Amino acid sequence: MPATDPVAAAPLADAYADAPESASDAVFFGIVHGLERRAFVPGQRLVEADLAARFGVGRNSVREALQRLAAEGVVEILRHKGAAIRALTVQETMDVLDVAERMTGLLARSAARAAAAGRKPQALARALQQLRSADRAQDADAFARARRSYWRALLELGGSRELRRLFPSIHMPIVYAQHPLAALQKLRLRDYEAIGQAVAQGREDAADARGMEHVRNVRGEIQRQLAS
What we know:
With 228 residues, the chain is mainly α. The chain is built from eleven helices and three strands. The chain has two domains: 14-85, Winged helix-like DNA-binding domain superfamily/Winged helix DNA-binding domain (Arc Repressor Mutant, subunit A, Orthogonal Bundle); 90-227, GntR ligand-binding domain-like (Four Helix Bundle (Hemerythrin (Met), subunit A)). It is globular, with a radius of gyration of 18 Å.
């Protein structure tokens, strides 16, 4: 029997893809991506019939997607109450950010190491150009697609199966949906440029530092929001 590919087996491993491969994927990634656009919000009840109509799929596909989301900790399924988007406490939010900080630094480091070894970061450069264009056009949907391309480019450049398996499972979509930040897009673009520059130059320590700094910047904005 062939060994199971840990990347293929991970439900969120393709979270940065734009084209779903099945009806269940359409619901699964529709909800994950919808969190960032606040089309879905933490605490919101998820009604099977509504989701089936929204995504144009059968209810069996909705149930499968909800079970997958529950396994990933994005959705809670409560007895006699159905499914709802998980809401994070303040401490849980900080815990997610702690993990994201370390993981983002490691991802940037792995990509910089690959660039230093001679791998070409063209996909990363294209994603950054898409981000700039979307920002100039103030097109939030295009910016979200470009963000997925950016993270996918870093994951593919670094080539780590473990990071491809683990990085998309961090609950940042819930964090962003629960704590909408007015200045987030500008912060992201600035930080993504800094990460991308360090990666393209093959500077592992600098890329690691820029990756962690990005999450620290997000944490600082959230803390300011909570204190206001």
